[in-house]
Design goal:
Length: 202
C-alpha cells in the first residue's frame, strides 16, 4: 500500500494515471481510507483526502501521481543525511541474498534509510536517522522478512573541524624487534570553508 494525498482532481480505482517523477504509468487497483484499527475500501478520493492505494508498481516516497493528459511534477522531497550506522551480517551465506533483498525493499519505502556493502568485511552497513529508526528496521527484518542476522551496535558519525590553525611536530623513536625505528612528523590543521571536509592536513 502507498499512502497518497490528493491535491486536486479525483483519484479513481482502475483509472490509469502517470507517475510524473519516473515517467511510468500506473493503475490503482484499490483505494482505502485508513483508521486506527480498520480500513474502509472506497472507489474514489477527492482534494484534501489521504488514502492508501494498492496495486502501484513503480511509485515510492516523494513521487507525484498526475493525470497523463496534464502532467505536473512537484519538487521532490529532500532528507538530511543519516548520522547513525549499524552493521548487519547474515548468519549463513544462504541468508545473504534474502537479507540484501529485504533491505533494498525497506530502502524503497523509506528514503531516510541507506545501506552499503563493506568491501573488506562483507558486512552490510545500514545508515538511519537515529537508534530508534534502526531498531524499527531491525524489527521489520526479523518479523516481516524473517531474516536471521547479527546486528552490530549503532555508531554515530561525527564531523568536526578546528576553530583555528595549529601546527605540531612529533618524533617516533622506539625499538621494534630489536631494531631502532625513527620518524619525524610535522602536522598543520586549519579550518576549511566546506564543512563537509574534516581537516586540511599538510
Amino acid at each position: 500500500l502507498v499512502i497518497v494525498r490528493v491535491y486536486s482532481g479525483v483519484l479513481e480505482t482502475g483509472r490509469r494515471i502517470l507517475n510524473a517523477t519516473r515517467d511510468r504509468k500506473e493503475r490503482p487497483q484499490r483505494l482505502y481510507r485508513l483508521f486506527a484499527d480498520r480500513r474502509e475500501e472506497v472507489h474514489s478520493a477527492g482534494p484534501g483526502e489521504i488514502v492508501a492505494v494498492g496495486g502501484l508498481k513503480f511509485t515510492i516516497t516523494g513521487d507525484t501521481l498526475t493525470d497523463e493528459r496534464h502532467p505536473i511534477a512537484y519538487e521532490q522531497l529532500h532528507f538530511p543525511e543519516p548520522v547513525v550506522s549499524m552493521a548487519v551480517e547474515p548468519r549463513t551465506n544462504a541468508e545473504r541474498d534474502k537479507l540484501k533483498d529485504a533491505v533494498a525493499r525497506l530502502c524503497r519505502q523509506d528514503p531516510t534509510l541507506f545501506f552499503r556493502e563493506d568491501d573488506e568485511t562483507g558486512e552490510l552497513i545500514l545508515k538511519g536517522m537515529g537508534e530508534l529508526h534502526l531498531d524499527i528496521i531491525r524489527e521489520f527484518l526479523e518479523r516481516d522478512f524473517h531474516v536471521q542476522a547479527r546486528f552490530g551496535k549503532p555508531r554515530v558519525s561525527y564531523r568536526e573541524q578546528p576553530a583555528a590553525e595549529a601546527s605540531a611536530d612529533g618524533l617516533f623513536d622506539m625499538l621494534v624487534a630489536g631494531k631502532p625505528l625513527y620518524a619525524a612528523v610535522s602536522l598543520t590543521v586549519r579550518p576549511v570553508e566546506d564543512t563537509r571536509s574534516r581537516l586540511s592536513v599538510e
